[in-house]
Hints:
By secondary structure, the protein is of the alpha/beta class. The chain has helices spanning 13-24, 64-69, 72-75, 108-113, 116-131, 134-139, 145-152, 156-171, 180-192, 204-211, 300-303, 326-341, 393-410; strands at residues 6-9, 30-32, 44-47, 50-53, 59-60, 77-79, 83-87, 92-96, 195-198, 217-219, 224-228, 231-234, 239-241, 244-247, 266-275, 286-287, 294-299, 313-319, 349-360, 381-383.
Amino acid sequence: MKEEKIYIIGAGLSGLIAALELEKSGFQPIILEASDRIGGRMKTDEVDGFLLDHGFQVLNTAYPEVKKYLDFQALHLKKFDPGAVIFDENESYIISDPLRNPLKVVSMAFSKVGTFMDKVKMFTLTQDLKQKSLDEIFSSKSIPTHQYLKDYGFSDQIIENFFKPFFRGIFLEKHLNTSSRMFEFIFKMFAIGHAAVPEKGMGEIPAMIREQLSSTQIYFNHPVEEVQGSTVLLKNGEQLEADRIIIAVQPDKVMKQLQGQFAPPQSVINLYFSLQKSFLARPMIGLLPGEHLVNNIVFMDDVSPEYSKDGKALLSVTVLESDLDEKELIRQVQKELSQISGIKSDFFKFIKSYHINYALPHVDDLKYTIPFTECKISDQVYLAGDYLLNGSINAAMTSGRIAAEAVIHSFMPTH
Length: 415
């Protein structure tokens, strides 16, 4: 075992993957985690017999990095049905599988969502992106997604009814200003992979990575005040001397010189309600086009029954932005749920809400990967985090791996 002292700040996905890769090369890293558990933004709570993920998140089975580090069978992945249930003004209809086989969707429902030409375009886009490599996607011209969809020839009807509510829930912003590179990447992943959750919640993902660690120490409740050179200053006043430091949190939190370098992240509000039974009755996402408080809904127990212990339905609701206080927010959400389902609003029993201020990083220049030289700040300090690439589970893992490679390389003798 190698003796070098390597500290990793943050036990989210990036930090855990960095530790795993360092271990493979014989190092024994130490992770400093500010909170009392691993996972960063990926956590699952157990409340009143329900499993509540912090924010509605899914794992895409086509993500290349995910396949390297996770055992899908051991996670007992539960897949969503492709497509969506669209809640229009006074009716709901299903578009099944619009990304996988759009031409098969000959039901009338699609004509309400979009035109026949939209179907053809959806088909050609799917075929185009299946052929396009990830490197090509991330080096292509970047324009806002809403512009990209118009330029591709999609009708306003399908942009408003399907693309907007579907991708707003992924990008966590209302106007689809997110780069077309991210749209192409996510669209391709959904076309070739499946959206899924581990049977017992998204927190199982970081737990599985932690289980693979054997010589890494994790210190919980160890918030870092600042990194100065090769010294880590903890909030409790302790000073740790390091040979190398990987900062696996947004670095302006611990490096004063980087403050003001990062655009505000995307935030989201996630509310959970219980109900006697699901009114969707299928493992599918429900979308509310137009101007609603609620963007999308999912009955998590329709996807994995383990999310609810007592047979009640568990409804996850995503709200992109709201200035309402908690009480009023809950009331308005219950009202919208009642309107789309015909079920009285007080039947939706509120369980818990999560106001996630840092849900996704705001990244202007989206990348799929970077050379490991680009995550080095100084000879001692290296960076990891999805903000270096793009806001995705895949990017979090990639950045952790690249930071570890950079550190391993830095110890190699130069000739």
